[in-house]
Model the fold of this input.
Amino acid sequence: MKNFLSLFFPEEVDFFSPMSKMYDLISQSVKVYLAAVYRGALSPEEKESLLARLKTLERDGDKIIREINAELKRTFTPPYSPAELIRLFKNLDDALDRLDESAKMSVHADYRPDFPPFVKDQLKVFARGVEQAGKTVELLRDPRRNTAKLSGILSDISVIEAEGDRIYWPNKQKLSSQINAAAKENRLSDYRRLVMDEKTLDQLEEIVDTLVEIMKVIQSMIIEHA
Done:
């Protein structure tokens, strides 16, 4: 009988708590990654520990995503359109996945004992952006009342993302020049290390860019309830 009635009176589903948990998982992942970067040269055991911890957090995020997809099928009245909620959770999941993949690529490639110097700066920028984005969760419970505050946070995130670009482009130019020089001079070991550094740089830029995608979804949510 209860299952039959649920077809006509679907349960209210809390999407905000899982949203907050996703931000928390991302923040934890960044802290774990940054701690490894600050340690400098890592032992094989430390590298494996880093990857294991990031993979656990990434799988925790996957579990939340599966639950959200199931919950969206169970309710007719989500706080926002299913499409917007799916987009937001997908972008949060992408951030977790890319953090895991970035560290995995560096460790498995085994081309240097530590991480390139720009990794610390990019991760710190991303951490600040995630902290700001996480503040939107409670505000999205009442977007009309909190429109000004939400807009202010989105503006702050935009500034933070621009800081990420200011780290990315000079390093990109520098690495491109060094890669070309190493190739011309047939310094194969340097060439391999520099190419991998460039891949790491690009991957972290994609991680920072997830902030832009998160902002786009939140802007749509605000417009939806304007």
Q: What stands out?
A: The chain has eight helices and no strands.
